Amino acid sequence: MTQYDVAIIGGGAAGLSAALVLSRARRRVLVVDAGSPRNAPAAHLHGYLSRDGMPPSELLASGRAEVTGYGGEITAGRVAALAPLDDGFSVRLADGRHLAARRLLVTTGLRDELPDIPGLRERWARDVLHCPYCHGHEVRDRRLGVLGANAGAVRYAQIVRQWSDDLVYFASAGTLTDAERVQLTARAIGIVEGPIDQLVIDDDRLHGVRLADGRVVPLDALFVPPRFVPHDDLLAALGCDAGSDGWTVTDAAGRTSVPGVWAAGNVVDPRAQLITAAGAGSAAAIAINADLVDEDVADAVRACAPAHLP
């Protein structure tokens, strides 16, 4: 099997940032990229200093070029299994390829689980949005809605209110508390209760939300707080500890409970934006290289010890 210092599983912002740091540190690095980034439907990325407004695909293309320019390797594929070895880990790809690595970094991200409303998935990252910090400025002062899909949705709506004073909150009947009603009303956020039937789409644009009773609420964009589901099967299979919330536990540098295994980005942090994920990947890479240096020192001491014996 081909031997690497570090195998990075996932070629998004976290994985490529880590690969850049490690390849510049003269480590032999392989990034295995399945090619299905979470932000693929988005036309532009925002909040990334010096890259605001860039298409996500261009950021990834630039990152891949930088990594390979320093000798890092990137391969298209999906990891089917990871297993411990005496000196690291084996990595088996779905196409049958095998490789070995001294350390692992998992940056496989998450998926957005959306409510089952006709038309919602098709408009995702276009005019059905999840992150006001990523998309709020682009729909400022327009007719906005927030779908009350989870327990924190009212506070989420109060944040979205920052970008428009024409905002409607969609709630299932009987779910709002008296305090929440007061808070919404105090900031002139409209309240619409009842089940949603479907989105109203015309000329490839969102025009509103149709309720089950036939009412149509006009909208230009709808914010939906999704349920985040991490792509953490590989981490779970390795035995990495998870917290009470079900997410893999890491320290500040991304180290998991399994020696030699790190994780970074949305697979362990659902709130990480691109720039946050990239920073986490960089921090993990520095910690991984330091860990490898410690092992290199120990190996060197063992190798030269017999020559100094009396």
UniProtKB/TrEMBL annotation:
Domain FAD/NAD(P)-binding: 4-279
The entry's keywords: Flavoprotein, Oxidoreductase
Catalytic activity: [thioredoxin]-dithiol + NADP(+) = [thioredoxin]-disulfide + NADPH + H(+)
PANTHER family cross-referenced by the UniProt entry: THIOREDOXIN REDUCTASE 1-RELATED-RELATED
Protein name: NAD(P)/FAD-dependent oxidoreductase
